[in-house]
């Protein structure tokens, strides 16, 4: 009987195969650089499997008719990130004491390199964020995107809206000029008009019966630590639910029944 | 499932759980889970509760309000107000100061009974709408608020606008011929004294119960 020829042994399986199209490996400096980047990313991904999660988050199927209105949520998030970054750097020069706060803001605006610009970004950016979050809410409402199964995401969004307003209120005091001082007095007293709990709430905000020595630092802590942390956490959960549940088509895009179902209907006639 | 129901006994040994001790009713896995959760809860409460108390503590702390001299008896008259600056909160510069309008008790204007604390009437400039600073306009004989148009008459009763009660007052007393100003108190529309409330909190009708007085500031006992 003729013996079958012994198949050739495979090449050493421990050497990784060449990438397609690059039979001879990287040759130009650019290719070497790209190879180094790929190696670094691969090293991290092999130990974290992050790429799967990123792909899940970034490369989602979106419904037909998705348009520019769907970017308002991301726009709000970028406004928040801008506030967070400029806020962190303003904190390097700001002094939350009743006797020094005003002077430190004057110092930021008049003396610090780009200080007026960074302060201005933070000041005007806060209005931008409030406008964007309302537009985003309007988009969600008018497109009916709050309906089942996305009700919880609407509720989280309302919590984020309230916290954004809290940020605006607590941040308004920090420049500590006449306008911010009296606006805060009025704002705290509006809190106080709630029956039974109101008076205690306004005392909590002021840390006492009068606008006192620690009111400003209390507002500062609420403004830069307490609420931003909660906003970042809830924003993460908000985004998770968006990716998990998917987005809705605009109301003017009519749902099409699958072809198979249509054929079924025809044969039923 | 049915099998499990039938063999339900409170002893883990009877339930055929491997490694069960005699007389043991809670599995060690379950005891460990519960113990771990309790330990975590205690550890979280150990930092969360003190932090919370730390933040709300000032609500229950009595605020010290020392008597301060605002002038000699000769500086004030019964017909018009004289402004004086007092310190409500020490150590924070201008933010802790406030203007007070003072005049001598005037039997033609003031209806409330005389006592040791009102031979001089001290009117707070905190508007009782939302706390803006009111100004006494001599020509109109009225206190007028710049923010939302609150108007008060010469004794501080509401004439018009959004304020919910008359202007707050301060206790005053005499020491030799010097006028001293003490803690703030609030008044209802009959000018009866109440423990100080914040602006926007009415005191007529059920107001005094809906907006209770707070431990941080009370009126002087028996006044």
TrEMBL record, chain A:
Keywords linked to the UniProt accession: Membrane, Transmembrane, Transmembrane helix
Domain Cytochrome b/b6 N-terminal region profile: 40-251
CDD domains: Cytochrome_b_N
Listed Pfam families: Cytochrome_B (PF00033)
UniProt-annotated stretches for the region Disordered: 1-29
GO CC, one annotated term: membrane
MF terms in GO: electron transfer activity; oxidoreductase activity
SUPFAM superfamilies, per the entry: Transmembrane di-heme cytochromes (SSF81342)
Segments passing through the bilayer: 68-94, 124-142, 154-174, 222-243
One of the protein's GO biological processes: respiratory electron transport chain
Skewed-composition ranges (Low complexity): 1-18
Name assigned to this protein: Unannotated protein
Protein source organism: freshwater metagenome
Automatic annotation (TrEMBL), chain B:
One Gene Ontology cellular component: membrane
Residue ranges, annotated region (Disordered): 1-22
GO molecular function: 2 iron, 2 sulfur cluster binding; metal ion binding
Tagged with keyword RNA-binding: no
All copies of domain Rieske, residue ranges: 114-181
Transmembrane residue ranges: 38-60
Entry cofactors: [2Fe-2S] cluster
Keywords: 2Fe-2S, Disulfide bond, Iron, Iron-sulfur, Membrane, Metal-binding, Transmembrane, Transmembrane helix
Xref: Gene3D superfamilies: Rieske [2Fe-2S] iron-sulphur domain
Pfam families: Rieske
Ranges of biased composition (kind: Basic and acidic residues): 1-16
Cited PANTHER family: CYTOCHROME B-C1 COMPLEX SUBUNIT RIESKE, MITOCHONDRIAL
UniProt-recorded name of the protein: Unannotated protein
Organism: freshwater metagenome
